[in-house]
Specification:
244 residues, mainly alpha, 8 helices, 70% helix
Length: 244
């Protein structure tokens, strides 16, 4: 059964179908309907990226040491929280990884929250988007592991003593490959379930009752963005630590 086409997706399919088909062909993918190649989860990601850029374009010229505004206070709270978590999990040298953690958190948070707005959907309720974030995390923490330890990063997969290496190597490989799957399922399942519950109650009850579940959706959105980012910090911390 084809997904319902959002009005924002309809704009892309009406006015830029060729661009969508070209992008898909670049990555070796094909749309189910070549005449309408844009899917909701793709256009919602584009919208999220645009919203993030607009928010920070508005925020940057208003930054002030003497008279910070409400928006600055909100993002300072997010920054201080992520910085504190990074220092606690990785150590003070973890500041260099904070930009990735912040980008990941903001993107997932905005992607989760946009589904609350009428006529929009959370792109994270589609498995492709959490999978993309999870793959980016997998590549990043392994890349940082090699950057911090060089070829010695392989020792993380071999266990504490050399004679355990034949046993530990396959276990560690499977464990690391399972991490993107775990991250994907956790985020996708929670956001999909939350979205469906909200839609059901909006259809069945007066607005006051669904508002409670929309508040729960906001809480889950923050929680899932935090958990995803926290696990990323843990993986990076384990990858960059030096073996003794």
């Amino acid at each position: 059964m084809p997904e319902h086409e959002l009005w924002f997706t309809k704009l892309f399919n009406d006015y830029a179908p060729g661009l969508g088909a070209s992008i898909l062909s670049l990555v070796g993918a094909h749309a189910e309907n070549p005449a309408r190649p844009w899917a909701n989860f793709i256009t919602m990601q584009i919208l999220v990226a645009l919203l993030v850029m607009v928010v920070f374009a508005i925020l940057r010229p208003r930054l002030s040491v003497d008279n910070p505004g409400r928006m600055q206070h909100v993002f300072e709270l997010i920054y201080d929280f992520l910085r504190g978590q990074t220092d606690e999990i990785i150590g003070h040298h973890g500041f260099k990884y904070l930009s990735f953690f912040g980008t990941l958190f903001i993107f997932i948070l905005f992607s989760n929250l946009i589904g609350i707005l009428p006529s929009f959907e959370s792109p994270t309720m589609f498995p492709y988007v959490p999978a993309g974030c999870a793959i980016a995390t997998f590549i990043y923490y392994n890349g940082m592991g090699f950057a911090a330890n060089g070829a010695g990063y392989i020792k993380h997969y071999l266990g504490p003593v050399w004679w355990l290496a034949p046993i530990m190597l396959p276990i560690e490989i499977v464990s690391n490959l399972a991490r993107p799957l775990s991250l994907t399922i956790r985020l996708f399942a929670n956001m999909f379930a939350g979205e469906q519950v909200t839609l059901v109650f909006l259809a069945l009850f007066p607005p006051a009752i669904p508002a409670i579940f929309m508040g729960l959706h906001v809480f889950v959105s923050f929680l899932q963005a935090y958990i995803f980012t926290l696990l990323t910090m843990v993986y990076v911390g384990g990858a960059v630590e030096h073996e003794h």
